[in-house]
Fold each of these.
Amino acid sequence: MLIVDPSYEIQDALDQTSLVVRLEACGRICYKSEEKITLDSAMPFVKKIAEHGHNSVMEMAVVTLGVQCSAEQFDSFLALEPKYFFIDRFEDEILITGSIRAFRELYVRAGEQELVEALVGFLTDGHPYLFEGVWAGGRGLREKSSIQVRKLDLQEVDGLPAALLAQHRFSGVKFVVNRAVTHEIVRHRPCSFLQESQRYCRYSQDKFDNQVTFIRPMFYEEGTEEFTLWQKAMEDTEQIYLQLLESSTPQAARTVLPNSCKTEIIVYCNLAEWKHIFSLRTTQAAEPSMREVMIPLAAEMKERYPAVFV
Ligand SMILES: Cc1cc2nc3c(=O)[nH]c(=O)nc-3n(C[C@H](O)[C@H](O)[C@H](O)COP(=O)(O)OP(=O)(O)OC[C@H]3O[C@@H](n4cnc5c(N)ncnc54)[C@H](O)[C@@H]3O)c2cc1C
């Protein structure tokens, strides 16, 4: 067995990639198949994911669109009560931020609405593969309408006033923590999550060094009686897990794995939600293993976005 320390990484580099590259990089965490990423693996991966209905992968990239349209067109859009979007007026535009999944599902539900067609049609022009099976070419409303749509680049989003920045700027963080911590993190409903799957990952494989990895418990110091007891429990569990894998599947064998098991999770949400998470997960009342990663993460986020994390 392997014991590692918990860690986290703000996924800045992914923010600079194309949508499809971002989706693949995040999606592969479930299978721990990052070694399969090549220069042209992203598109087929994402297409397959969309076909299979592994929908949360399609939440891992958001786009901010700037729209100019009439009051009637906007009112009729709002009447749809679009879900999972952030919508604000700014200067002479309406800002609409949503994930690829949110745009796909809005189009399926209300593709006949003029603004919906304009938004999804605009995204389809640049990224047809992300809307395959969903976009049917539109009803020609775009050509006739006066709606103007443009994409804001990240630099523009980063330059928005604090209140809008908090709503429209999304940031992804990859955590390497134990499963007790991820069980708590996933309670934050406005976030999107992707997590290493114990159903798909078989820890007896070479790529996992044929062993189970555990997170060093922050409660017990190495060398103490408690730590020795904990270590023995993990060793025994690993042995039983590996034995079960000889005759059963990972999804069956994983039923013996404990909270201390190492897992990886990507948490993706806007800065407003990160602020809310930090307000709950860095205080004395929060679980100590959670504070162990959230306190330094909150400090890093504050450095990046001082106007939001005051
Ligand atoms: C110290 C601590 C102890 C806890 N103990 C327990 C426990 O013993 N058992 C347990 O089950 N959970 C426990 N929790 C989890 C806690 O109850 C929340 O589920 C979790 O912290 C998510 O936070 P949230 O609900 O404030 O906001 P999020 O889910 O992060 O949502 C963000 C915001 O969106 C809004 N929102 C989202 N969904 C809804 C909704 N359906 N209705 C209305 N508003 C919504 C709210 O304004 C909310 O503040 C604990 C959390 C903490 C921090």
Note: Strands lie at 2-4, 7-10, 62-68, 85-90, 93-99, 148-151, 170-178, 192-195, 213-215, 262-270.
Amino acid sequence: MKFGTVAIVGRSNVGKSTLLNRLLGEKIAIVSDKPQTTRTRILGVVHVPDGQIAFLDTPGLHKPQHLLNRRMVRTAVEALEEADLLYVLMDATSLPGPGDLAAVSYVKEAMAKQSRPAILVVTKVDLVNKLKLLPVLESYARLFDWADVVPVSSQTGDNIDRLLAVTIPHLSESEGAYGDDVVTDQTMRTLAGEIIREKILQATEQEVPYSVAVEIDQFKEEGRLARIHASILVERETQKGILIGKHGERLKAISTQARQDMERLFGMKVFLEVWVKVKESWREDEQLLVELGY
Ligand SMILES: Nc1nc2c(ncn2[C@@H]2O[C@H](COP(=O)(O)OP(=O)(O)O)[C@@H](O)[C@H]2O)c(=O)[nH]1
Ligand SMILES: [Mg+2]
């Protein structure tokens, strides 16, 4: 048997969670076009013919401001330091920027403690003209001594097989750490909260996405039915108003979309009730952050 842990790291929005979902062939990590969507480390286990690869999706590496963000970056750095192999993701639609350079310095810091191979994964190649791709690849390739450079599209699945193929030689001879049917460490309860948060991120702009957390107050399974009560935390009354919307329409749409996703993922009927609560400065409240799993 072969086994190894791969940390998926990079700046915000490069497509880490989308890549994890594509590698698994199942959506377990939420995705949005807003930065800092992922707040925790998410395990996804890919079972290959004679082994297992444990992928760790991580929050984006960035310069943190709030306590929440400091904890997020710490989570990403811990995954970096723990993994046998790194996928460092960079976005083919742009050239290296300060965010990528910051990500590389986090990688170098971890390498200084213990060296390990890092594969440069250039994402979103479906959005880039083939002729323009080569100079972009070259400019990212120069940033570090990569073990490999693999351009991929998690949208179309382009080159994902090659990414897995170059990964397998880095695994070590060892028993797998997970059971044959384990795909993730995310509980249904956690997934429920994340799905609600994804719908909020997709429906809101500006500071609202960053100011939202979701707490699952109740998750009761009754046969093929799940009864879920969730509280959406925001930092201000104005944000509560935005989330609820005129005549409650935005909250209703968010809740309907979330319920439909949960029903698909869980294969059960879902009764979902959501409330919006104002909790000022929750992002600085260490105890609450721990309770939220951040
Ligand atoms: N076209 C295209 N979009 C992508 C691809 N990968 C990610 N995205 C989009 O990029 C945005 C950020 O993706 P996400 O996985 O949340 O990034 P993360 O913050 O690094 O986890 C989302 O809008 C995704 O739909 C890709 O391969 N092709
Ligand atoms: Mg993510």
Note: The longest helix spans residues 249-266.
